[in-house]
Amino acid sequence: MNVLVDTSVWSVVFRRKPADLNVFEKSIVAEFIELVKEGRARIIGLVRQEFLTGIRTVAQYETLRIALAEFSDEIISTQDHEAAAKAANECRAKGVSASLTDILICEVALRRGFAIFATDPDFQNYARVLPIRLHTARK
């Protein structure tokens, strides 16, 4: 099964220094590397944009942009956006607020049969409302 990777994971992998990672974060990086080796890591354009936003220097931006360039964006359709809006409404009706990026990740994953790999705890909340599958690091 392919895995849609959230910004929270891309950030741990590419924006953090390996020496600064805790045990959990090291397991995230190791799992990401395995997903890439297996050809199962996926990204959407909105995650790419979110990840590259706020980079302080042009050189760092270019380094990160080039690192992501080997990953093609999943194509997002009008139906994906409409399904994301519906899912956001479902979540809100059950007391769970969702960001535009997160809910689009949920719907793209659902519509394509992907799991979601994230360190963001909000995805646990979405999973209480939506039938998403969350990917965790293998031990």
Strand order of the largest sheet: 3-2-1-4-5
Strand tally, please? 5
N-to-C SSE series?
Answer: EHHEHHEHHEHE
Largest sheet: 5 strands, parallel
Cα-atom Rg, whole angstroms?
15 Å
Give an account of the 3D structure.
This protein is an alpha/beta fold and 139 residues long. It has a single domain, classed as 3-Layer(aba) Sandwich (Rossmann fold), CATH 3.40.50.1010. It is 58% helix and 10% strand. It is built from 7 helices and 5 strands; from the N terminus they run βααβααβααβαβ. It has helices spanning 7-15, 23-37, 45-52, 58-68, 78-93, 100-112, 122-129; strands spanning 3-5, 41-44, 73-74, 115-117, 134-135. Strands 3-2-1-4-5 form a 5-stranded parallel sheet. Helix 7 (122-129) links the parallel strand 4 and strand 5 (134-135). Helix 1 packs across helix 3 and helix 5 (78-93) packs across helix 6. It is globular and about 40 Å long. The mean pLDDT is 95.
What is the topology?
Layout: E1 3-5, H1 7-15, H2 23-37, E2 41-44, H3 45-52, H4 58-68, E3 73-74, H5 78-93, H6 100-112, E4 115-117, H7 122-129, E5 134-135
Parallel strand pairs: 1-2, 1-4, 2-3, 4-5
Helix pairs in contact: 1-3, 5-6
Name the descriptors.
139 residues; five-stranded parallel beta sheet; 7 helices; single chain; Rossmann fold; 5 strands
A few lines on this structure:
The protein is α/β, with parallel strands linked by helices. It is built from seven helices and five strands.
